[in-house]
Amino acid sequence: MKIPTHKMFIFPLLLLLSASSQAQWILDSGASSFFFVTNKAAAVSEVNSFTGVSGSITEAGSATLVLDLSTVDTAVEIRNQRLTEMLFQVGNFPMATVTLIVDTAALENMPAGLTATGSYTASVDLHGIKQDVVADMQIVKLDAETLQVQLARPLIVNAASFGLAEGVEALRAVASLPSITPNVVVDFTLVYHKE
């Protein structure tokens, strides 16, 4: 049995909670992962990640995911430094944030073991630019206290949409590469526990 996915308006979720709103679901950063795949020189693909991922869904239905951009992990230290300084410019833009409104009643009523899928729109704030992004999502109620949220299919994000094209070109030049593809493929699995 599947519940209507339009009632399951959920996407990656919150770093900080205001004093007036108490969190209902908290992201388990140790059980969660957030990856993006880059492509350079037309044929070399590399898997990168962010280790600083935090989030929650508040009781009022405010859902936010926050990525600490300084925690980017490319498996190569000099690349980490170049991405944080030249691409993300973390001194000015330390975080990326994804927000939307969640139907918390639907989450509560979702039976354990059920999977809901659908297309969702979230507001992404990255590098000082806000854009709506549509993604196909899958939500699994692992048990009464645990949710798993993941992409039903990978998401393609264009660097220029968030003002990152100049940073990509700077990375290409400093590494003496013939090209760096401006599109990145994003994928994630996020696990939340009921507070």
Query: Quick one: how many beta strands?
Result: 12
Radius of gyration of CA atoms, rounded to a whole number: 17 Å
State the share of residues found in helices, binned by percent.
10-25%
User: Structural class, from helix and strand content?
Assistant: mainly beta
Separation, N- and C-terminal Cα atoms: 26 Å
- Overall number of domains: 1
SSE order, as H and E? EEEEEEHEHEEEEHE
Shape: elongated
CATH architecture: Beta Barrel
Strand proportion: over 45%
Largest sheet: 8 strands, antiparallel, barrel
Structure description:
With 195 residues, the chain is mostly beta strands. It is 14% helix and 47% strand. It has one domain: Lipid/polyisoprenoid-binding, YceI-like (Lipocalin). The protein has helices at 77-87, 104-109, 165-174; strands spanning 23-27, 33-40, 44-50, 53-58, 62-68, 72-73, 95-101, 115-126, 129-143, 146-151, 155-158, 183-194.
